[in-house]
UniProtKB/TrEMBL annotation:
The organism's place on the tree of life at top rank: Bacteria
Name under which the protein is recorded: Cupin type-2 domain-containing protein
Boundaries of every Cupin type-2 domain copy: 35-101
Organism per entry: Acrocarpospora pleiomorpha
Length: 109
C-alpha cells in the first residue's frame, strides 16, 4: 500500500508555464498525477496513447472532446479513451485534476 501525498491538490504553475503536470505514482499498469490549470489559462495537451480518467478536485471549466463536451466542477469524473483529442476550456476557477492513466502514462509511446 502507498498513500499518494498531494495527489489532486491545486498547485500554481511555474512562472511562464501554461499549466502544471506532476506524476506522483507510476507502475506498469497505471499512473497517477495532478494536472493544474489556472483560471483563464490554456490547456495545451495533446491526445494520449493511454486511457485516462480525470477527477475534478477543484475549479470549474468545460471539457471539449471529439465525442462530446460538458461543464465540469468538483466531483466530476471524466473518462477519455486513448487517442481522443480533448482539452479543458473556459476555465473560470483554478482547476485541479487527479489524473489516472491506464496503462502508465507514456508506456504505449
Amino acid at each position: 500500500m502507498e498513500i499518494i501525498k498531494g495527489a489532486g491538490k491545486w498547485a500554481q504553475p511555474a512562472a511562464g508555464a501554461a499549466n502544471d503536470w506532476v506524476e506522483q505514482l507510476k507502475v506498469p499498469d497505471l499512473s497517477v498525477g495532478t494536472y493544474c490549470i489556472p483560471a483563464g489559462g490554456v490547456d495545451d495537451q495533446s491526445p494520449h496513447t493511454e486511457d485516462e480518467i480525470y477527477v475534478v478536485t477543484a475549479g470549474r471549466a468545460r471539457i471539449v472532446a471529439a465525442s462530446s463536451e460538458a461543464e465540469v466542477g468538483p466531483g466530476a469524473v471524466i473518462f477519455v479513451p486513448a487517442g481522443e483529442e480533448h482539452r479543458f476550456v473556459d476555465i473560470s476557477e483554478d482547476l485541479a485534476l487527479l489524473v489516472v492513466f491506464g496503462p502508465a502514462y507514456g508506456s504505449r509511446a
